[in-house]
Structures are given as structure tokens and as C-alpha cells.
Q: What sequence folds into this?
């Protein structure tokens, strides 16, 4: 039974990361729409989709109770608002990068996500790093510095994606809610801003939602594209170890990288290759360190690992 659960968890994880990895193809289909409107439509339809899902999964009552709790706790509201702004910014930057033909920089940002989260943990949560983790961070830094020399400027797309998602993850620790309710709350908070912007576009006759039936359907589908991978990931996280998820997560940026090079013909320069080589080395060391640490913990306390299982 346990093996079946883990197998199902791995399938959910792979499917979620594959969906995340091929989203650049989806955004390319509506690249004629401005990035700002795509982001607003994504927030709008994500919230609508999550409301329907809450009713369908019978979590509406829990959601309403959580909303009442937010009203009573201003600190929780501000944490939720900032988290919503961070993840929306992350979505917007990624889509803009895809549309502008900079998928390679976006995939680099996804690759360094775990390392950025590690650094934020050290600074904000006073976590300690092992020698292997320090080495992985140094190697990643060399990779980013290589691109900085190549472009003549800091690779802000990669760093912005990594930092916004890293701080988003930090704030999520303060919001105790399951993923379905959490995503509904995040889109709820930012929904009014998206709605006002879409109304402004309509008033100025600049909205592109009605350009064609395909455009309308693709923009409406952005809500499902946003929510579905996250929900699949959540199902997998309950059945698969974190160390295995840590390895599987590199499926997403790898697929994005391949899409950028082979489908959309972005140039993989020598500087890109060197930078990615350092990043991949850093991730290999980081993953090895995480896996061996978990194995040592299980070996040292087998009774605890059995009880968790």
C-alpha cells in the first residue's frame, strides 16, 4: 500500500513539474496580448476557478472561516497581501520573459530557486549551512557572475524570479492553510487590483480579451494553467519524500530550457553554457547534501522515521 502511495505521489509530482515546464508554450500562444493584461486575466480567472473548486471539494465553509480570521488579524492580512504581490510579480516576470524571448534567463531563475531559498533561510531564519551547501551557493554565485559579465548588467530576470519565489515561500510559512484555500486567498487579495485594471482597459477600449474566440478561451484557461500544477504538487507532497521532490523539481526548468532552445530558437551562448554548468554543479552538490542528510537522520532515529511513515 505504501509503495502504491509513493508511486502515485511520484506520478503527481512529475505531472505537476511537466505542466510547469511547458507553460512557456502556453504563454507564447497569447504573446500578442500585453503581459500586464495576461497577468490580470490570470489572477481574475484563477480566483474564479478556485471558488468553483472550493465549492466542488466542499471546502467553502473552511475558506469563509479563514477569511473571517484574516479580518480579525491585520498582521495575517498583510502577510497574505505581500505574499500575493510576490507570487503575482513572479508570474508577471516569467510571462514577460517568455513573451520577450528570454526563456533561458527565466529557466536559470527557476534553477537557482532552491539556492535562493537556502540563503533566505540563513538570513531570515538563522539556519546553518553545511560545507556542501556553502560550496553549492558559491558555485551558483559564479554562474550568475558569468552571466553578469556576458550581459554587462545583473541578470535581473533570473534573480527576480528566484527572490520573489523565495520570499513568497518564507511568507507562506506564516499562513497556515492547505494549498487550495491558500491559493484562493492569495488570488482573492489581489483580485480587486486585477479587476480594476481590466475595467480600465475596457473603458479605454484597450482590452484584448475579445480579440478572438481563441484569445478569450486561452486567457480564461490561464486560471486552470495556474492552479492545476499546484494542486497536483500538493497531492504529491503528501506521498513523496522531500529529498525526492527536490530532485524531481528540476524537470520544470529543464523543460523550459529545452523549449527556449529547440522550439523558440533562443541562442544558447558560451556564457549561458558556462553559467548553467556552474548552476547544475551547485544543484547536484545541494541535492546530494540534502539526500545524505535525510538518510543520516533516518539511520540515527529509525523509530521516528517509522512513526512518520
A:
Amino acid at each position: 500500500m505504501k509503495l502504491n502511495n509513493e508511486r502515485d505521489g511520484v506520478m503527481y509530482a512529475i505531472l505537476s513539474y511537466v505542466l510547469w515546464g511547458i507553460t512557456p508554450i502556453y504563454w507564447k500562444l497569447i504573446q500578442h496580448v500585453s503581459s500586464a493584461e495576461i497577468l490580470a486575466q490570470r489572477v481574475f480567472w484563477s480566483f474564479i476557478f478556485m471558488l468553483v473548486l472550493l465549492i466542488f471539494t466542499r471546502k467553502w465553509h473552511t475558506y469563509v472561516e479563514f477569511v473571517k480570521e484574516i479580518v480579525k488579524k491585520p498582521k495575517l492580512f498583510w502577510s497574505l497581501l505581500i505574499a500575493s504581490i510576490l507570487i503575482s510579480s513572479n508570474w508577471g516576470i516569467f510571462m514577460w520573459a517568455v513573451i520577450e524571448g528570454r526563456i533561458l534567463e527565466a529557466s536559470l531563475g527557476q534553477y537557482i530557486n532552491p539556492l535562493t531559498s537556502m540563503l533566505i533561510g540563513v538570513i531570515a531564519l538563522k539556519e546553518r549551512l553545511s560545507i556542501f551547501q556553502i560550496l553549492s551557493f558559491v558555485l551558483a554565485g559564479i554562474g550568475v557572475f558569468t552571466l553578469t559579465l556576458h550581459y554587462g548588467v545583473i541578470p535581473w530576470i533570473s534573480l527576480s524570479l528566484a527572490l520573489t519565489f523565495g520570499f513568497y515561500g518564507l511568507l507562506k510559512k506564516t499562513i497556515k492553510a492547505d494549498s487550495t484555500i491558500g491559493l484562493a486567498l492569495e488570488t482573492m487579495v489581489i483580485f480587486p487590483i486585477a479587476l480594476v485594471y481590466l475595467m480600465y482597459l475596457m473603458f479605454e477600449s484597450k482590452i484584448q480579451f475579445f480579440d478572438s474566440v481563441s484569445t478569450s478561451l486561452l486567457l480564461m484557461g490561464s486560471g486552470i494553467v495556474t492552479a492545476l500544477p499546484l494542486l497536483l504538487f500538493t497531492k504529491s507532497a503528501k506521498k513523496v519524500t522531500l529529498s525526492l521532490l527536490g530532485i524531481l523539481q528540476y524537470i520544470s526548468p529543464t523543460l523550459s530550457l529545452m523549449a527556449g532552445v529547440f522550439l523558440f530558437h533562443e541562442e544558447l551562448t558560451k556564457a549561458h553554457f558556462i553559467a548553467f554548468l556552474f548552476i547544475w554543479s551547485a544543484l547536484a552538490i545541494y541535492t546530494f547534501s540534502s539526500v545524505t542528510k535525510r538518510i543520516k537522520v533516518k539511520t540515527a532515529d529509525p523509530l521516528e522515521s517509522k512513526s512518520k511513515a
Remarks:
- The chain has one domain: 2-156+165-308.
- The first helix runs from residue 2 to 21.
